[in-house]
Structure formats: C-alpha cells, structure tokens
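Reproducibility note. Readers wishing to regenerate the assembly model reported in the main text can use the exact inputs given here. Chain order matters: entities are listed in the order in which they were concatenated for prediction.
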Amino acid sequence: MIRIACLHVPDADATVQSALLDIALRHSPSVEDVAPGIVFLDLRGLGKLWGGEEELARRLLQAVAERGWTARVGIAGSRAGARFAARAGEGVTIVPPGRDAGRLGVAPLALLDLGPEMAARLARWGIRTLGELADLPARGLAQRLGDEGPRLQRLAGGEDPTPLRLWTPPPVFEESAECAWGIEALEPLGDLMAGLAEALCARLRRDELTADAFAWTCRLADRTVHEGFCAPAASLADPAAAAAMLRASLAARPPRAAVEGITLRAHPLRAPKTQPRFDEPPGPSPRLLTAALARLSGLVGTSGIGAPELLDSHRPDAMQMTPFVLFSSRNPAGVAVRAEGRSPEARTELISGEARAEINQGKILAVRRMRPPRPARVTLAAGAPAHLHAGGLAGRIVAGAGPWRVSGEWWTEEAFVQDEWDVELGDGTLCRLARDGRGWRLEAIYD
Amino acid sequence: MATSIESLPPPGLDPEGLDGLLQAFPQGRLSEIVGPRSSGGSSLLLALLARAARNGVTALVDASDTLDPAVAARAGLDLRGLLWVRCGGRLPVAWRATDLLLRCPGFAAIALDVGESASAPPGMGVRLQRAVANGESMLVVRGPRHLLGSAAALVVSVRRVRARWIGAPRPLRLGGLVSEARVVRSRSDPGLTRLGRAWLLEWRT
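Running the prediction on these inputs yields the following structure tokens for the assembly.
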C-alpha cells in the first residue's frame, strides 16, 4: 500500500529547501525534491519504526520548528492527495487509505503539475477541480487526450503508482588525518597529504568523477588554522598529479606551526567522456601539465604562473593573473569551469573598437613594461623632456610626443592621474615616460 | 599558363612579409630572435606566439616580467591559452622553467624572453635543443644577442630602422617602428640566409 507524506513550508527559498531535504532524509530513505518548500517522503514500511503515521508527522513538524519555520504535513495514498492535504489543513492532515478520491474531489487541477497546453485545454472544457476531471467519461477522455487522459484521470482519483524520483544528497569528497605528535617538516606533511589525495582520487574514480579544485585545512599546534587551495589546469583524478600539485602548493605556503590534523577536500566534477575532435588542436596532457605547473609553482611561486586577464579599467597595466585552465572550442570557458573570472566575451569587450579592428593582423609594436616602473630623472627643455636617466638607461632625447593625460577612478580612493610621453633616445631606444605627483618614471620600452 | 589554385598561398598570406618570416620558424627545433632593445624583437616574438596560438596553447617564460597582456591581446594572442611564467628578473629560474615546460609535450610554442642582461648556462642550448626535438613544440628564445651557439636551428637578427612619428613639424604621437629582420642561420632552409635577403617589418602602436 502506497503512503506518501508531503512536507510543506510556505514561501520557502533554496536554503529552507536544503534543510527540508535533510530533515526528510532523516525520517525516510526515499525522498523526492518537488519544488521550493515541498518535499515528498515515501512512508511504506516506516509505520512501526516511528510509531505510526501521526507520530512521524509530528516529529517532522517538530524538526522543522526547531529550525524556526512553520510546516504542514499531509499524508495520503498519492502525491496529489498528500500535497492537497498539506495545503488544505493546518499542522498534520492524514487521509485514511482509500479515501484519496473523496478528499481530492474539490482540489484544484494545478495539483497535477499540468503543462500549460493541457491546463489551457482542460480550462476550455470548464474543468477546474480534480473531481470534475475524475468524473469525465474515461473513453471520451482517451479519444481526445490519448494516453495522457486516463493517466491524469487516475491521478485525479488518487491512484499514483509512479515511484518517487529519489533525491540523494551530493557526495562530500573529504578525507582527514590526525597526527597528535605534530608534523613540523614539509616532507612528511606532503606524504600525509599525498595519502589523503590518493584516497580521494580513488573515491572520485569509483564514481567516475574528477576534481577541479582541492582545498585543505590544517589544525596547527598553536591553536590556529592554516587553509590552502589549489586548482589544476584541467580536472583530474590522478593521485600522482594531485599529490605533486598539493606538495608544491604546501611548499609555496607552508603552515606556521606544527600540524596536528589535516582535512583535504576535493571539488568533484563530472568530466564529459568525449573523443577529441579532429579539427581541434592537440594540447598538453592534463596529467603532465598539472605536474609541470606544480613544479613551476615551486620555482616561481603560485602567483607567478597563470594566464593573464585584462581588467576593465584604464589604469596603466590593469591586469591580473588567473589560474591557467586548458580550454577547448567546445568549452571555451575551460574544461574545469569555475565561477570566478570574466567570460571570454566580456574580455573581448575590454579591447576597444579600434584595437579590435587590428586584431589578428599582427604587426603590433610590443611594449616591455617595467614592473615596478623605474624612477627616472628627466631634464626639461622648453617644457619637453630633453634628457633621460633611469637605471641603466641614459641619453639625450631626440624626439618625443606628449604629454597625454591618463586618469580615472576618481570616484574611488584609488584614483590615478599621470601624464605620459613617448620619447626616442639618441641610441634609438623608444620609451614611455610618465609623470605624476611623485615624479618621473620609466613605464615601458617599446620593442 | 594557368596556375593551380592549390599552389597559391592562402588569402591574406604574404610570403615575402611577416607571414613568410614566421613560417621559417621550425617546429621541434630551437630558434632565436636576437636584437637590441627597441629593435622590434619582442614584437616579432608576439606575432609568432599569436600565430602559433591558432594551433594550440602557448607558453611564455618571462625572465624580467615585462609582458604587457593588453598589447599581446591586440597582437591577436588569446590570453586564455597563454601560460605566462613570471620569473621576476631571475634568469636562472627562467632557464629552469623553460627546461621544465619542455618536458610537458603538447604546447604549440614555448617562448623564453631572457630580458636585457642575457647569459645562458653552459650546455643549456644543447639540453633545450634535445628536449624540444622530441616533440612538436616550437621553442623560441628572445635575447639581445645570440646565446645558444650551434644548438639554435634558426637565428633571426632584428635591427631598428627608424621610429615612425605622427604629426609635423612637431610629433604628436608615436605611430610605430620600422625594423629589419635577417635570418643569420637556418638549418632547414639555408637559402634564407643568402646575402641581401631581409624582411622590412613595420610595427604599429
């Protein structure tokens, strides 16, 4: 005998829904996520476990009330019956077995989740309630609506043989280890992390998943916490590559004190199983690239490696480093899609119209930026730069153009304003100079 | 006599211009672009990377951290597919990073910009040449002078011809740079090095 409970919290959002699903799953192994604020539970075989349907409904209400919300529970022999019971009554409403049809007679058609076309059709026929639908001649309904007609009529009469669409909680890929004696050296800590990564990767592979990010939390002996994060160039489930990446990340940002406990989490991703296309250029192997990036991070630091991204600003050298992610023409945003970062379209918009016209024509004069800009001594003649001395660069200025004022972000605390000159030295060196309130600087050399 | 369509270069390709020069850079070999500052060498390197980026991801090991991404994007380089390794002025680190990247096959091109004060560790040329010979990647080293001896299969020398200023009689802005490129060594096509063969390249700001 089918018995369905509907747990309903009016005006619920996604946060409430997540909590409702959690509560429902603690009371029944079969749970369906219907809509925000509505969860179905399959009650078959649970009566003796909870001491009857009424007791189970009371516990559900109590669990929801502990979170600060007011819920209603309806129990019936069908989804439509349970939902109608939950909506109609306050607190707990139980429809005795076999009485669904009688109770559902006055329920609105909307309970059946009809498509807009079917809802409009039934409305044209003047059908407003489930009872009216159930009373229609079955043969005529089948002639006009096909198989859908009798199915809807059975639902309206309280017959609902379709099993629940089971909801399962998202898996948590997390491994922890305790080390009460404390680990101070990086090498054993890396070994411990590699062991956790191996266990995580084994679980990921078992579920045919990969990870596009790893995060760890270390509990330190000085009662503080050390957290870290790293993302491979392409999602992976290879323990060796993951371990190499984690070791490099740890070396780049080691914990301040001995580690007493460590937790490693992986962000799972279902990698599409597709063959590479013939018209797509081959790229580096994700496993080898991840290992190479991990070793490079050890050489230049994690901040010194990545893909540059232009920022939407007129500030000189406005850019940032983003993690390097392998991308393909089918997935331009990257194999391991991340929420952060600007879309490729938005990035293209950052390039002005004039520059867009020049793209792909090549022959753009490169600029070698000084980071940071070198302080310079400039001698003026008739208001224009005449002689330059900046670090290893010195000479008479034979030609120049400027000043061009660059300013912006005056509405923030980081406003900038500077005058720029392009100058040519006697030895042919082409430079860009800038002057602001702090003095002259060599910004870049054209090359 | 009619010319076969297949024998014609693709539309937009100028065999005697920049494209002709870029085609001379061989895959699976070590090449060098040499020339003093403001000679157009970095512009040539960017154009080469932008061309290689059509065939896959590229990497730039930047010893002195001088790449301007905005200019690179204007030169046609897809920044999403560029792995930028910033070495902060540490040249030995840049050599090691290049060597490390070559062990990861699949890059269309790997470029090393050694900056202004250039020197190469002994035997580095041969080491890099052997590493790149095993794959399909193109390795290009940009420096002020020829650094890697006989290991380089192609050496392109770039010199500045003149700067182009816009506005007269007083210049109003820098319009570009005209530079001249010559192939001083080419193992694959010795004809490129013949006397008088030069590419006049005009770079726009």
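We highlight two features of this model. The two ends of chain A are 82 Å apart (CA to CA). Confidence is low (pLDDT under 50) at residues 329-360 of chain A.
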